[in-house]
């Protein structure tokens, strides 16, 4: 599923956030531009002319300590007057008598008090053409003098646009919130769909499946929820099948126990009541009872062995044996039983010896179960083939026979516990059993670290075993 997750949800949200932020700024400035006429305020300012007077006064004050000659002093005042528009600059004594002045300044004496008063009035009620002066008390060549810079106020008109920080911030946040909500609505709907689906699954609806709408963490989560629902559905179906198998097991075991037990009780009743005519009948009754008791013992042994193998407490008694010799001996012992059922045994065991480290009793039980299973399901007359091969990673065994057709579902269930080929039983092809033989074989092989499987094509059945060295 990691291949599906091409773009991180975190990156998507971050990109959406940045995009909405940029778009919000664009909308905000567009709205600001469209409403600027409503917010416009016209103003008249005299700041430039006032600033020109003050700036030149400060400039002269800084330059004066560097001036030693009167001629240089006049030149300094002329230079300062040219730096502004219509400036007249004076140096006066404390009585107002002009000592030095710039070109264009004609007064010989200044009323300092009046100048200060006019400046105060100009600050309070500025108007075009009014005089504005800057007066600074300074010391030149050890003398106390006044530096007076006189100028005229000029009106400057313009427009200011009101800016309400609270209102504008509210508008910006609102625009951003609406855009972010709009662009993330699909993700929110997807999250809501996931939440609803999980709730449905929690309520027992395992049929529900989520659409895979994205390739991010939400898409991965949807995919995993679908897998979880499917696995739960399969698990429940499997558990139901197991429960049904258990019920079938009880039915089969009841039948398998009752049939021989009824026969044994019948024979023993005849013997107890001495209800027989010839001594040979006694031997027949005893022999039949013994055979039926053997069937009961085998059924009970299968149940105990399966329970033991699946308990997790099994310890194999492994030995180094010659598998070729063991298989050859088992086939020789099995041939008379096969011949009675009109089945021929063919085998290819390769070259001897075939050394393996196994539990010989358990492996013999496995092969016996496979041979008996093949005998039960083989067509009559028929042939059972047994092969043994040595490979690089271990040894391979196969039991091959031709039988009646089996569905794919049945083939997938042959190694499951309690499975006994119900459909085949209904056709009367094989005797009833607990359905544990192949399951026992599978557990034994897996305890050895090996594998067992069925290859089924048409009516040919091949049970394969691989045991590692």
Automatic annotation (TrEMBL):
Membrane topology qualifier: Multi-pass membrane protein
Keyword Cytoplasm annotated: no
Domain named HAMP: residues: 185-237
EC number: 2.7.13.3
Catalytic activity: ATP + protein L-histidine = ADP + protein N-phospho-L-histidine
Cross-referenced Gene3D superfamilies: 1.10.287.130, 6.10.340.10, Histidine kinase-like ATPase, C-terminal domain
Span of domain Histidine kinase: 252-469
Subcellular location as annotated: Membrane
Keywords: Kinase, Membrane, Phosphoprotein, Transferase, Transmembrane, Transmembrane helix, Two-component regulatory system
InterPro entries: HAMP_dom, HATPase_C_sf, HATPase_dom, His_kinase_dom, HisK_dim/P_dom, HisK_dim/P_sf, HssS/ArlS-like, Sig_transdc_His_kin-like_C
Official protein name in the record: histidine kinase
Organism encoding this protein: Desulforamulus aeronauticus DSM 10349
């Amino acid at each position: 599923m990691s291949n599906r997750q091409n773009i991180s949800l975190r990156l998507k949200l971050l990109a959406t956030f940045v995009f909405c932020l940029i778009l919000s700024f664009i909308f905000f400035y567009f709205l600001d531009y469209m409403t600027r006429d409503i917010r416009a305020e016209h103003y008249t300012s005299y700041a430039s002319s006032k600033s020109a007077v003050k700036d030149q006064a400060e400039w002269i004050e800084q330059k004066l300590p560097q001036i030693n000659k009167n001629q240089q002093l006049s030149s300094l005042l002329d230079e300062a007057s040219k730096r502004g528009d219509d400036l007249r600059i004076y140096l006066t004594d404390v009585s107002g008598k002009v000592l030095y002045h710039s070109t264009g300044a004609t007064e010989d004496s200044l009323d300092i008090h009046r100048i200060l008063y006019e400046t105060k009035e100009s600050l309070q009620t500025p108007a075009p053409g009014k005089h504005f002066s800057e007066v600074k008390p300074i010391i030149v060549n050890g003398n106390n003098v006044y530096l007076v810079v006189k100028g005229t106020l000029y009106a400057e008109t313009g427009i200011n646009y009101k800016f309400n920080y609270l209102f504008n911030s509210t508008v910006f946040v609102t625009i951003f919130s609406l855009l972010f909500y709009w662009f993330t609505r699909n993700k929110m709907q997807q999250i809501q769909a996931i939440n609803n689906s999980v709730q449905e699954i929690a309520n027992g609806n395992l049929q529900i499946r989520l659409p895979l709408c994205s390739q991010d963490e939400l898409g991965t989560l949807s995919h995993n929820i679908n897998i979880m629902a499917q696995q739960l559905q399969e698990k429940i179906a499997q558990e139901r099948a197991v429960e049904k198998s258990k019920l079938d097991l009880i039915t089969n075991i009841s039948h398998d126990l009752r049939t021989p037990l009824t026969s044994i009780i019948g024979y023993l009743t005849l013997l107890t009541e001495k209800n027989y005519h010839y001594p040979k009948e006694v031997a027949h009754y005893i022999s039949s009872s013994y055979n039926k008791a053997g069937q009961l013992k085998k059924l009970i042994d299968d149940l105990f062995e399966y329970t033991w193998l699946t308990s997790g407490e099994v310890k194999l008694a492994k030995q180094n044996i010659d598998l070729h010799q063991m298989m050859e001996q088992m086939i020789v012992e099995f041939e008379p039983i096969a011949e009675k059922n009109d089945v021929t045994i063919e085998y290819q065991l390769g070259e001897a010896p075939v050394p393996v480290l196994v539990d010989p009793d358990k492996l013999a039980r496995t092969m016996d179960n496979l041979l008996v299973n093949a005998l039960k399901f083989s067509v009559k007359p028929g042939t059972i083939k047994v092969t043994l091969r040595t490979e690089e990673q271990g040894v391979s065994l196969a039991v091959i026979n031709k039988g009646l057709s089996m569905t794919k579902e049945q083939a997938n269930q042959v190694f499951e516990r309690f499975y006994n080929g119900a459909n085949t039983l209904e056709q009367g092809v094989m005797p009833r059993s607990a359905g544990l033989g192949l399951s026992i074989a599978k557990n034994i092989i897996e305890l050895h670290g090996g594998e067992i499987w069925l290859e089924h094509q048409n009516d040919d059945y091949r049970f394969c075993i691989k045991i590692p060295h």
